[in-house]
Structures are given as structure tokens and as C-alpha cells.
Amino acid sequence: MFAEQLINGITLGSIYAIVALGYTLVFGVLDIINMAHGEIFMFGAFIGMVIVTKMNAPLAAAFAGAVLVTAALGYLLERVALRPLRGRTGVSHLAPLISTIGVSILLENLAHHIFGAGNQLFETPFAEIRFTIGSTTVYLVQVVILAVSVVLMGGLSLWLARTRSGKGLRATAESLETAELLGVDTKRIITATVVIASAMGGIAGVLVGMAFNYINNQIGLSMGLKGLAIIIFGGMGSVAGAMAGGLILGLSETFVVAYGSSGYRDAIAFLTIIVVLLLRPQGLFGRAAPEARR
Amino acid sequence: MLEVRGLETAYGSIRAIKGIDLAVPEGRIVCIIGANGAGKTTLLKTISGLLRPAAGTVTFLGEDITALSPAQLVRRGIVLVPEGRAILSRMTVLENLEMGAYQRRDGRVREDIEATMERFPVLKERRNLAGGSLSGGEQQMLAIGRALLAKPNLLLLDEPSLGLAPLIVSRVFRIIREINREGMTVLLVEQNVRQALKVSDYAYVLETGKIVHEGPSPELLDDPKIKESYLGGRRP
Ligand SMILES: Nc1ncnc2c1ncn2[C@@H]1O[C@H](COP(=O)(O)OP(=O)(O)OP(=O)(O)O)[C@@H](O)[C@H]1O
Ligand SMILES: [Mg+2]
């Protein structure tokens, strides 16, 4: 029982972590919260659903389709809603936030029209396959979710730590002006960041479909709020914080439901976050003073 | 090598520089001196592409570079070490140096980073520490070392001695002379007027956005007017 809950918690937590990474990456380079991220995530889930449920295609195709569509949405978001507002005198610093809220409403309505309302079945081809080790049952779906998440998080961390473009992204996140003076094409880095963050949201969407077997056009909102809570909890702009925060939220939610009451699921999870923030206002991995933000 | 003609830059309605003409010949050290708020930083930011001028042109090696972005200028060999050094404080010393070579595609980056760390041994010792943990003097070494890793033809330095202890200041000026001897052209902005005039070949004096005086540095060093207003002579 405990081991199963642990696996459930880690599975859910790694999905949360991937959603939160999307927020944190964009916040890192642009200093804004991308309010459309939840809806981009939801689009990924719907595209995945159409591919596996309606078209009976393999899961890999669902990932590919979700990544393509959400990456394109991310590109459009940056070019249409964010870039035109950047570096202009007289534009309020809240403008990009409002603009992403606009995009999120648009995407939610669009999803309603294209995919309809209500719960939709997400049929993972191997949903019933499971293994029993001792008294613990593990579903293949969970193994796949974990594997995809680990590869994604590990790949992202390595990319940021080791590669030229990853370092360019970190430099841009720390100071746009300094990065430009060093020869970084910051426009390209920013576009790439929004695209990568959105594609990660798309992958998370498919993972949520796999984990819950159904999706609807409200999941963007609820997942979006959790992602936001996680990055505040983990430290705004912190990659490690998004990962740790996601896992902690997933685990605490799972155990609250398992050993407490499902009615308190969200309440307890958010209570944990509030307590941590009271003790450590900058978040788990946040920097105490906003010295690098100008 | 660098020619600036009629350059004007404004922040909204504030005209920070008002029609500046200057030239930096190849292989020389040219300095710009001026009081706080004279427009020195604005001038360097405009040359390096961070600010767009309202009027005027900048030519480099015969090419008009006025409208280019900082990244394009780095590619053409113009690198600015900004005021306050702009160390990436969350990245390590080594990563800061690697970022200096961001635009380079040749295979010699590793060797050049090694050579930079030989030149500034303190950077080698601290290579895996965060840039933000270095002292002001160490950060200035890192900023200059990082800029040189881009292999520029022209180095722009904005007040490299700012906020440093006297001993470190002499060290910084020694380094500037050294890299110039190795062939680097330098445009130096300074408020440490005496040292700047000693190290440079030619100097411009900037006051409220305009060049009010210019000449070979040794001459300015002996000029009674410069002595009075910039070299700690009698103040009005
Ligand atoms: N971002 C800005 N917005 C508005 N005005 C500015 C801005 N930056 C500089 N200024 C103004 O432009 C003028 C020139 O400033 P600049 O920073 O170029 O001077 P400086 O010679 O570099 O001074 P310092 O020696 O203090 O570095 C000053 O009057 C300053 O107040
Ligand atoms: Mg200045």
C-alpha cells in the first residue's frame, strides 16, 4: 500500500514538475508569468487524446503530435502576444501578463469549440498492463510516465548546464543586456525558451491523459494554478525548485488522499506551500534578494 | 578604425549626448574623460549597439555599423566591458569565460581560456565558484578576460577602475597597456583622469553631452585648464 502510494505520488509529482518547468523557464528569461501555459498544456492533452483515442495511433505519435502543436502555439504566443510588447517605452510591465491571459482565454474557447465540453476518454493503448512485485502493483503507464519525465528533466538539466545554447539561456535569464553584449542572440533564445517550455507543457498534457484516463477543458486552469503554486514554492525561475516543488506537491497530495480525505487534497497541498513560504519567503531554491533582476 | 560622426542619443526627451565626433585609430588607446552624467556611458552604449542613436553614424573599418545589434558588433570585433563589469553572478567563473567566446566557432577556445586563466591566476583558482562571489578587482579581471576571449579588434572599457582599491587600479591600467602592446585598439572611458591620460595616446573631454576639448594625452596632462578642472587643481 505504502509503496504503491509512493509510486503514485512520484508519478503525479513528476508531471507537476514538468508543468512547473514550463513556467519557470519562461519566467527566467522574460520575468513574466505565462498565464497561457496551462491552456497550452491542455492543448497537448487534447491533441494526444485525438491521436490515441480517435485515431487509434500509437502513444509515440501522441507525444509527437502534442509536441508539434504546442511548440507552434508557443512560437505564436511569443511572436504575437509577447514580442510586440517588449522593449517599448510606455508599455506597462503588466501588459505581457494581461496579453498571456488573453491568449489563455482564446485557447480555452478554441478547445471548447474543437474538442467539446465534458470529460473525454484518453485511451492509452497499454493501460491495463501491470506488474506485481511482492504486494505492490505497478502499471506500465506509470513506468512510462516516470521514464519520460526523468529523461525530460535530465535532458533539460544537462542542456542548461553543458551546452552553448543552454548557457546562453542562463546568461539571458540573468541579464538580457549582458547576454547581448557577450554576443548572445537574445531574441532567438527567448523564442526558443517559450517554444521549449510550451512543448514541455504539451508532453505533460499527454502524461496527464495517461495518468487519469480522461481529460476536459478545465484541466488547463487547475494544472496551471498548481504549476504557479509550485514555482512560487520552489523559487521563481529556479529549475531545481520546479522539480523538487512538483515532486513534493504530487507526494503530499497523494498521501493526503490515501491516508486522509480526498476532500482536503488541494487544501492540504496548498497549506504545505503556505507554511514553507512563511518560513522561506523566497521559496525552496529561490535567491533571497532580487539583486539580479533589473 | 572607429569613426563617430554627429552622434546623438536621447532618453525620451533627455538628450544625453549631443552631436559627438571622434576617431579611434588602429592600435591606439583613446580615452574619454568627463564628470558624472557627462554622457560617457551613453556614448559607449550607443557605439556598442545597446542604444539607438537619434542621429549620426558610427563606422568601423569603413563599414557603417550604426544600426547593428550588440551581437552583430561582437561578431565584427567590437566588445564592450560595461560599467559595473556585468559579471554573470550565478554562473561560474569558467562559464563566464566560456560566455566570452560565445560567438566563436574555432577550435581554439579551450586553449585561449587556459591562457586567460594563466594570465589571471586568481580566475584559475576560483574557476568553479560563482562569478558573484568574486571581489570587485577579481570581477574586473574576469570582465576583461571574458571580453578578450571574444577576440575583439576594438575593446571598449567603461570606467574599469571604478570602485577599486588604488593597488588594483594600477594593476588594471597595467593590463590595459599590456593588451594594447599586444595589438588591441582600446577606447577607454574614465574618471581617473590622471591614469587615463598617462595610459592613452589621445583624449577627448566630454561635458554635458558634448566634446569640449581634445588632443594628444600628454598635452592634456600639461594643459592648465585640464589640470584645474580634472586633475585636482584649484576648484572654482
Ligand atoms: N536610462 C536612462 N534614462 C534617462 N536618463 C538617463 C538614463 N541613463 C542616463 N541618463 C542621463 O543621461 C545623462 C548621461 O548619463 P551617462 O550615464 O551616460 O553619464 P556618464 O558620463 O556615464 O556618468 P557616470 O560617470 O556617472 O557613469 C545623465 O544626465 C543621466 O541622468
Ligand atoms: Mg557611466
How is the topology of this model organized?
The complex is a heterodimer of chains A (294) and B (236).
Chain A: H1 2-30, H2 37-54, H3 59-82, H4 95-115, E1 120-121, E2 130-133, E3 136-139, H5 140-162, H6 164-174, H7 176-181, H8 186-212, E4 214-215, H9 219-234, H10 239-259, H11 265-279
Antiparallel strand pairs in A: 1-4, 2-3
Helix pairs in contact in A: 1-5, 1-6, 1-8, 1-9, 1-10, 2-3, 2-4, 2-8, 2-9, 3-8, 5-6, 5-8, 6-8, 9-10, 9-11, 10-11
Chain B: E1 2-11, E2 14-24, E3 29-34, H1 40-47, E4 55-60, E5 63-64, H2 70-76, E6 78-81, H3 93-100, H4 109-119, H5 121-125, H6 136-148, E7 154-158, H7 166-181, E8 185-190, H8 193-199, E9 202-207, E10 210-216, H9 217-222, H10 224-230
Helix pairs in contact in B: 3-6
Bound molecules: adenosine-5'-triphosphate and magnesium ion.
Describe the structure concisely.
Chain A is built from eleven helices and four strands, in the order H-H-H-H-E-E-E-H-H-H-H-E-H-H-H.
Walk me through this protein's architecture.
- The complex is a heterodimer of chains A (294) and B (236).
- With 294 residues, chain A is mostly helical.
- Chain A has one domain.
- Helix content of chain A is 72%, strand content 4%.
- Chain A has helices at residues 2-30, 37-54, 59-82, 95-115, 140-162, 164-174, 176-181, 186-212, 219-234, 239-259, 265-279, and strands at 120-121, 130-133, 136-139, 214-215.
- Chain A has a two-stranded antiparallel sheet.
- In chain A, helix 5 packs across helix 6 and helix 9 crosses helix 10 (239-259).
- Chain A is globular.
- Chain B has 236 residues and is of the alpha/beta class.
- Chain B has one domain (2-230): Rossmann fold (3-Layer(aba) Sandwich), CATH 3.40.50.300.
- Chain B is 37% helix and 27% strand.
- Chain B has 10 helices and 10 strands.
- Chain B has helices at 40-47, 70-76, 93-100, 109-119, 121-125, 136-148, 166-181, 193-199, 217-222, 224-230; strands at 2-11, 14-24, 29-34, 55-60, 63-64, 78-81, 154-158, 185-190, 202-207, 210-216.
- In chain B, the strands form 2 sheets. Chain B has a 6-stranded mixed β-sheet, sandwiched between helices.
- In chain B, a hairpin with a 2-residue loop joins strand 1 and strand 2 (14-24).
- In chain B, helix 3 (93-100) packs parallel to helix 6 (136-148).
- The relative contact order of chain B is 0.18.
- The chains are: A mainly alpha (294), B alpha/beta (236).
- The interface between A and B is medium-sized, with 20 and 25 residues.
- Magnesium ion (MG) binds at residues 40-41, 83, 158-159 of chain B.
